[in-house]
UniProtKB/TrEMBL annotation, chain A:
Entry keywords, A to Z: Membrane, Signal, Transmembrane, Transmembrane helix
Transmembrane portions of the chain: 274-294
Bias-annotated ranges (Acidic residues): 107-116
Keyword Transmembrane carried by entry: yes
Region forming the signal peptide: 1-24
Compositionally biased intervals (Low complexity): 70-90
Region (Disordered): 30-151
Domain of life per record: Bacteria
Name the UniProt record assigns to this protein: Hydrolase
TrEMBL record, chain B:
Cellular location(s): Cell membrane
MF terms in GO: monoatomic cation transmembrane transporter activity
Protein name as it appears in the record: Potassium transporter
Phylogenetic placement of the source organism: Bacteria, Bacillati, Actinomycetota, Coriobacteriia, Eggerthellales
Record's signal peptide: none
BP terms from Gene Ontology: metal ion transport
One GO location term (cellular component): plasma membrane
Membrane topology: Multi-pass membrane protein
Length: 302, 506
C-alpha cells in the first residue's frame, strides 16, 4: 500500500498544476517557443548586441527569460573577484543563466536557487513533507525555509556601508552584502589586469563610501557613474570585507563575489535660466560702477 | 601701555582689506569660468552672485580711505591677520549654497581650512560636488599656500606702500631676492612650474587608469596643487586611496616634500647651488627628526594589525610624509587610524604633524628651523657650562649662509614653540570637554593648529559649534604663527577697552 503512496501524491500534484490559472493561461496562449511551445531565452526581445530590452519584473517572470545588464531590473553577475574571471556576461542574454524572476545568477548558484532553469512543462515534483520540529506535523510544501537551518555568522546580510566605514575587527574578512550608488570612476587595478576598483556610496547621512574590487566584466551592469548632476547606478554587492586587505597593502576594501543591478543611474539636466543670473549680474554691475567712481575720486584728490 | 588703533588706522586697514576682497572676487572668476565651460548653470549663477557681493563689499571698504598712504607695521599686521578670516567669510557664501554643508559654520570652517591650507573638510557628499566648487576649493588652497599677501604683492596690489611690512607679517622674513615683489613673483613662478609638470604626469597616469580625459586632467590639477601647497583637500571623498595607484602616490610624496622646503632653498637649487640645501639646519633637523619618528612609527605599527611589510612601506611612508609636510592626504581611512593603528602610531603621527615642515615653505607646524635652533641652544648651554669662565661660547648654524646663534633668535624660536604647545593643549582639552577620547582630541587639536588637516573622529559635519569655532581659531593662529595674531588681538582689545580717563569722566 505504501508503495503506491508517492505515485498518488504525484498524480494529485499534476492535477493541481493543470488546474492552476497560470497554466490554463499559458495553455490558451499556445506558447510561442519553437520547442513544445515553451518560452526560451531566444524569444526574449533583444537589441542587435543581444542586450535584453527593458522589461518589468512581472514581464520577466511571466516570460521566464532573464533581464540583465543595464536594461534589467535585477541582474546579478559573478564579479569573480576571488575566483578568477567571471563566466557570465551579464549583457548577453543567451549566455546568462537566469531564474524565474529574471535574476542573472552568479557562477555556481544554479543549484542553490529554486526553479532557475526548470522546464515549465514538467510538473513540480512533490516535496516530501518535513516534520515540523514544533508541532510535529508535516510543513507546507511552499515553505522553502529549512526550519533546521543552523545559525551562520559568517555571512552578514545587508550591511550598511556606514557600518563598513566604521568597522572594527569583527567585520574583518566577513562576507557582507551592501547596496549603494556607484560614484566616481572605474579605476583599473594596477597589478591585476581584468580587475578594477569602483566606489560604492551609501545612502546614509554621511554618504559613507567603500572601495570595491571587482572584475572589469562585472562593471558592465553599471550604466552611470555618480558625479555632479549624475546619480550613479545602484548596485548590490556581495563580497568579502577587509579592514586591512592583505592583497592591497592594507587598504580597507570589499572584494566582490556577486554584483546585482538594483537601479539605473540618472542624469539631471540643468536648464539654463537667465533669471538665476540676474541678481549676480546686477551686483557685478554695481561693483564696477563703484570701482569707476572710486578711481575718479582718487584722480580728483591727486 | 598697549598701542591702540586710531580711526585713521582702521580706515587704512579697511581700505587694504577691500583691495584684497576685490582680488578675491577675481579669484572667484575661476570657478565661474569652470562652471560656464562645463555648463553647470546653478554653480555659475551662485559664483556670479558671490563675485558681485564680494566686489560691492570690497569697493565699499576701499571708500573708507581714498588715499591710504603707506602702511606701517601695525596696520600691516592687522591687514594680514584679518584677511584670512574676512576672505574665508566671503568664501563660505558660494560653498554653503552648494548644498553640501550641514551648517553655515561648516562652510566657514572649510573656507578657513582651504585658505590656511589645513585641508580638513566638513563637506558632505564630496563626490557629487560640481567642478566649479572643486575648482574654488583648490584655488583657495593655491592662494593660501603661497600666502594671500605674497600673491597680492606679486600682482602689485598694494602699490609701493608697506610691501616689506606685509611680507614679514605673514610669517615670511626671508627674501629670495632683495625686492619683495620680485621674491613673491619668484615663489609664484616656481609653484606654477612644479604644479604644471606634476599635472601633466598625473593626467597621463589617470588616463592610463581609465578615467575620462576631463576628469583625469582636473583631478591631476587639483591634487598637484593641493600636494605642492601642502593643502590636503582632495576632489574625492576617499582622498588619495581613491586612485589606487602607487606611482601617483610616489609623485605626490615628492610634491609634498618639495612644498615643505623653504622657497629660499628652492631658489638656491634653481641657481645651481644645491650645497646650501644639504648644509641647512632645517635639512639636518628634518633628516634626524623624520628618521627617528619613522622608526618609532614603524615599530608601533608592526605590533598592530598593520604588520605587512608592503602595507607598512606604502601606507606608513605616505602617511609620515603627509603628516610632516602638514598636507593631510590620506592613504589609510580615518577608521583605520582609530581602530587598526596602535595608540602609539596614532600619537606618533600627531608628534610628526606638530613639528611640521620647513620655515618659509607652504608647510605648517612649529617648523624644523625652530626645533633645530632650540636644539642648538641646548648645545650652547651645555658648552657654556663646561667652558672656562673666560671663554666666550659661540654656536653657529647654517641657514642660507652661516649664522651665529643669538639670544634673540633663541627667544623667538622658544616663544613660538611654547605658543604652539599651549594651543595644542587647549585644543585637546576642549576636545576632551566635548566628550572626545583623549588621543583623538590631541590628534585633532594638533592637526588643526599645525594646518595638517588629518581628521579622525572629533571633527565632522555638524560638530559642536564651540569646538568648531576653536578649531577655526587654531587654524588661523597656526597659519599666522601666533605673533601676528597675538599682536592683532592685543591691539583690538586695547582699542575696545575705554581709556581710564574717559571712565573717570563718565
Amino acid at each position: 500500500m505504501s508503495r503506491w503512496r508517492p505515485m498518488g501524491l504525484a498524480a494529485v500534484a499534476l492535477l493541481v498544476a493543470l488546474a492552476s490559472p497560470g497554466y490554463a493561461a499559458w495553455a490558451a496562449g499556445g506558447g510561442t517557443g519553437a520547442s513544445g511551445g515553451n518560452m526560451t531565452n531566444e524569444d526574449v526581445p533583444t537589441d542587435e548586441a543581444g542586450v535584453v530590452e527593458a522589461v518589468t519584473a512581472g514581464d520577466d517572470a511571466s516570460a521566464g527569460g532573464g533581464s540583465a545588464g543595464s536594461a534589467g531590473d535585477a541582474g546579478v553577475s559573478d564579479a569573480g573577484a576571488d575566483a578568477g574571471a567571471p563566466d557570465a556576461d551579464a549583457t548577453i542574454n543567451e549566455d546568462v543563466p537566469t531564474d524565474e524572476a529574471g535574476v542573472v545568477e552568479a557562477d555556481g548558484q544554479e543549484d542553490a536557487d529554486e526553479g532557475g532553469d526548470a522546464d515549465k512543462t514538467a510538473p513540480k515534483p512533490a516535496r516530501p513533507a518535513l516534520p515540523d520540529p514544533v508541532f510535529g506535523e508535516g510543513v507546507n510544501e511552499d515553505n522553502l525555509v529549512n526550519p533546521q537551518q543552523k545559525p551562520d555568522s559568517s555571512f552578514i546580510y545587508d550591511t550598511a556601508i556606514s557600518d563598513l566605514q566604521d568597522a572594527d575587527s569583527y567585520l574583518n574578512d566577513q562576507t557582507v552584502q551592501v547596496t549603494g550608488e556607484v560614484v566616481g570612476d572605474r579605476i583599473r587595478a594596477e597589478f591585476d589586469s581584468g580587475y578594477c576598483w569602483i566606489v560604492l556610496q551609501g545612502s546614509d547621512k554621511g554618504h559613507s563610501e567603500i572601495p570595491v574590487f571587482m572584475s572589469l566584466d562585472a562593471t558592465a551592469v553599471i550604466d552611470t557613474y555618480g558625479a555632479y548632476g549624475r546619480k550613479g547606478t545602484t548596485l548590490q554587492v556581495r563580497g568579502t570585507f577587509h579592514l586591512i586587505c592583505p592583497e592591497h597593502e592594507g587598504l580597507t576594501d570589499l572584494h566582490a563575489d556577486a554584483v546585482t543591478f538594483v537601479e539605473k543611474g540618472s542624469v539631471t539636466e540643468q536648464p539654463f535660466d537667465i533669471g538665476a543670473f540676474l541678481p549676480g549680474l546686477m551686483l557685478v554691475a554695481i561693483g564696477f560702477i563703484m570701482l569707476i567712481v572710486f578711481h575718479q575720486m582718487r584722480e580728483g584728490q591727486r | 601701555m598697549w598701542q591702540r588703533f586710531t580711526l585713521y588706522d582702521l580706515r587704512v586697514i579697511g581700505h587694504y582689506l577691500g583691495t584684497l576682497l576685490l582680488f578675491f572676487a577675481v579669484l572667484m572668476a575661476l570657478p565661474l569660468a569652470t562652471a560656464l565651460v562645463f555648463q553647470e548653470w546653478e554653480p555659475a549663477a551662485r559664483y556670479l552672485a558671490a563675485i558681485g557681493i564680494t566686489m560691492v563689499a570690497g569697493c565699499s571698504l576701499r571708500f573708507l580711505r581714498i588715499e591710504p598712504g603707506r602702511l606701517d607695521r601695525r596696520q600691516a599686521l592687522a591687514v594680514t591677520g584679518f584677511a584670512w578670516v574676512v576672505l574665508a567669510l566671503f568664501a563660505s557664501m558660494p560653498l554653503y549654497f552648494s548644498g553640501h554643508y550641514m551648517t553655515y559654520l561648516d562652510a566657514i570652517f572649510d573656507g578657513v581650512s582651504g585658505l590656511t591650507t589645513t585641508g580638513a573638510s566638513l563637506i558632505v557628499d564630496l563626490d557629487h560636488l560640481s567642478y566649479a566648487d572643486n575648482m574654488f576649493r583648490f584655488a583657495m588652497h593655491a592662494l593660501g599656500g603661497l600666502g594671500l599677501i605674497v600673491v597680492a604683492l606679486s600682482f602689485g596690489l598694494f602699490g609701493r606702500g608697506g610691501g616689506a611690512s606685509l611680507f614679514s607679517s605673514e610669517g615670511r622674513s626671508e627674501h629670495v631676492v632683495p625686492n619683495v615683489v620680485q621674491t613673491t613673483q619668484f615663489i609664484a613662478r616656481i609653484t606654477l612650474v612644479i604644479v604644471s609638470v606634476a599635472t601633466v604626469i598625473i593626467t597621463a597616469l589617470c588616463l592610463f587608469m581609465g578615467m575620462e580625459p576631463t576628469r583625469a586632467f582636473l583631478n591631476a590639477l587639483w591634487v598637484s596643487t593641493s600636494g605642492f601647497v601642502t593643502g590636503g583637500f582632495t576632489p574625492m571623498q576617499l582622498s588619495i586611496m581613491y586612485y589606487h595607484s602607487f606611482p601617483l602616490e610616489a609623485i605626490l610624496m615628492v610634491l609634498m616634500i618639495l612644498g615643505s622646503i623653504s622657497f629660499v632653498i628652492h631658489a638656491e637649487v634653481w641657481k645651481g647651488r644645491p650645497l646650501p640645501f644639504f648644509r641647512d639646519i632645517e635639512t639636518k633637523t628634518m633628516v634626524l627628526w623624520i628618521g627617528v619618528m619613522a622608526f618609532v612609527f614603524t615599530a608601533t605599527l608592526a605590533l598592530s594589525p598593520f604588520d605587512d611589510m608592503l602595507a607598512l612601506l606604502r601606507r606608513g611612508l605616505f602617511m609620515i610624509i603627509s603628516a610632516f609636510t602638514t598636507t593631510g592626504f590620506q592613504v589609510v581611512t580615518t577608521n583605520q587610524i582609530t581602530t587598526a593603528f596602535s595608540n602609539g602610531a596614532f600619537l606618533t603621527l600627531a608628534f610628526i604633524m606638530a613639528v611640521g615642515g620647513a620655515s618659509g615653505s607652504t608647510a605648517g607646524g612649529i617648523k624644523f628651523s625652530r626645533m633645530g635652533i632650540i636644539f642648538k641652544s641646548i648645545v650652547s648651554n651645555v658648552k657654556e657650562a663646561l667652558a672656562p669662565d673666560s671663554a666666550r661660547v659661540v654656536v653657529s648654524y647654517s641657514h642660507v649662509g652661516k649664522r651665529v646663534l643669538t639670544p634673540e633668535i633663541v627667544k623667538e624660536a622658544m616663544t613660538v614653540f611654547i605658543l604652539y604647545v599651549i594651543t595644542y593643549v587647549i585644543g585637546a582639552l576642549a576636545g576632551i570637554a566635548h566628550g572626545a577620547e583623549a588621543i583623538p582630541a590631541i590628534f585633532e587639536s594638533v592637526a588643526m593648529t599645525s594646518n595638517s588637516g588629518i581628521i579622525t573622529s572629533v571633527a565632522g559635519p555638524g560638530m559642536p559649534g564651540t569646538l568648531e569655532l576653536l578649531y577655526i581659531f587654531q587654524m588661523w593662529a597656526g597659519r599666522l604663527e601666533f605673533v601676528t595674531l597675538l599682536a592683532l588681538i592685543v591691539e583690538v582689545a586695547a582699542t575696545l577697552v575705554p581709556r581710564p580717563r574717559a571712565r573717570r569722566r563718565s
